Amino acid sequence: MDTYEVFAVRYATMQRKANENFIGGDPHEEASDLDYFVWLVRNAKRTFVIDTGFSEGVGRKRNRFLLREPAAGLRALGVDAATVRDVIITHMHYDHLGNFKQFPQARYHLQDDEMIYATGRHMTHNIFAHPYEIDEVCDLVRCVHQGRVLFHNGDEEIAPGISVHRIGGHTMGIQSVRVRTKIGWIVLASDATHFYANMEEVRPFPIVFSIGDMVQGYGRLKALADDPRFVVPGHDPLVMRRYPVAGPGLEGIAVRLDTEPNI
């Protein structure tokens, strides 16, 4: 079976308190900052980018600190966004869908339920709509009509050694990505678990469509990986500490995920 190199590319960061990241979090706890990532999966035959980050303009509007354009982080790993053929969109929140137009040759892999959610009745409520950028949603709808969105319904293999899995919870249609690597199956959870602690301590993140689905999803993430340690959360700064730097000059920018984490 095909195996892949896998990288996390850090492009932004934000200071947060624990009560902002965990339902029931104690506001007196220490800071629980967020890092923002896109992910790269590749071998000699295929290259997949997972999510596209947020744009500089949206970052300013939402008071997020952009460290570098996601495309610049990918370029440091030898990948030109303009030539990428496959982008997996885990969900359509602003920090995962922004910049997608920088991938003009790509087709976008998305769950049916995510498009239904992002364009349907739930968006009439700000509690669900706030993390979406209207212009980005509309632009992706245009890509649907151009034949550039590949829809998936639940769990599907999209290439040998790569599959997507609808987890739900954070949004109606969030999907995580399972990848075969030299250490076995790893899972790029994206925001199915923002932090290791969300999953390990069953303390859900407060931006949520269904708490029940989110909590059930933690078990699914662990089951999909060959080892629970191989589940990679979507926003945890610990990712940059638990995995080795991807190469010279990439300190603080990218780490290798196809290796044993330092836990």
Q: In angstroms, what separates the terminal alpha carbons? A: 28 Å
Mean of residue pLDDT?
95
Could you estimate the helical fraction of the residues in percent? 25-40%
Percent of residues in beta strands: 25-35%
Chain oligomer state: single chain
| CATH topology annotation | Metallo-beta-lactamase, Chain A
What report would you give on this structure?
The chain is an alpha/beta fold. It has a single domain, classed as Metallo-beta-lactamase, Chain A, CATH 3.60.15. Helices cover 26% and strands 25% of the residues. Strands 1, 2, 3, 4, 5, 6, 7 and 13 form an eight-stranded mixed β-sheet that branches. The two termini are 28 Å apart.
Task: Please provide a brief summary of the model.
This protein has ten helices and 13 strands.
Features:
alpha/beta; five-stranded mixed sheet; eight-stranded mixed sheet; 10 helices; Metallo-beta-lactamase, Chain A; about 25% strand; about 260 residues; globular; about 25% helix
